[in-house]
Design a protein that fits this description.
The chain is an all-alpha fold and 165 residues long. It has one domain: Ferritin. 78% of the residues lie in helices and 0% in strands. The chain has 5 helices and no strands. Helix 3 packs across helix 5. The chain is elongated and about 55 Å long.
């Protein structure tokens, strides 16, 4: 992968992470309790991705060859949050929070695709490993959000009552 392509790939990753942060923080502002904590945790994880990518981007802009620092703990394994029935009902009954979950699913799916493609075209083994790990982590987010969407669907239907606006 050329340096120019690497810069573009990292910049696109940065934008995706910032979009995720924006959605998660907006949803947290409109939430309380465990739902607020859930969205704040998602925003914090996206900020870790953003900070790493922004740091790497600065290295790429300054140097001919920027080494990838795969620091321990940059991408920690976190257990999935315990999602209660009440949590799912509150997500499903709030149209904004439900839309935030839907939007987040799309962002995570786009991130998976971007990071996988970037890993495939990278010539540097460390960069390939990093993009692969980012794609895997985003896949975990995607699957968790998809499950929340599916499990909160009946609450959404109940809240909408399929009545006109």
């Amino acid at each position: 992968m050329s340096k120019k392509n690497m810069i573009e790939a990292v910049a696109e990753g940065i934008k995706g992470e910032l979009d995720g942060i924006s959605i998660y923080e907006a949803a947290a502002e409109r939430s309380l309790g465990e739902i607020k904590e859930f969205f704040l945790d998602r925003a914090a994880e996206e900020k870790m991705h953003y900070n790493w990518l922004a740091s790497y981007y600065r290295k790429l802009m300054k140097a001919e060859d920027a080494d990838v620092d795969l620091l321990p703990g940059v991408l920690p394994d976190k257990p999935s949050p315990i999602i209660s029935v009440e949590f799912l009902e509150r997500i499903g009954s709030d149209s904004f929070l439900s839309a935030a979950i839907s939007s987040s699913i799309l962002l995570e799916l786009n991130a998976i695709d971007h990071y996988r493609k970037s890993a495939e075209i990278s010539d540097d083994l460390d960069v390939k490993m990093l993009f692969t790990e980012l794609a895997d982590w985003e896949k975990d987010h995607y699957e968790m959000l998809l499950k929340i969407q599916e499990d909160s669907r009946q609450s959404w239907y109940n809240a909408q009552s399929f009545e006109p606006f």
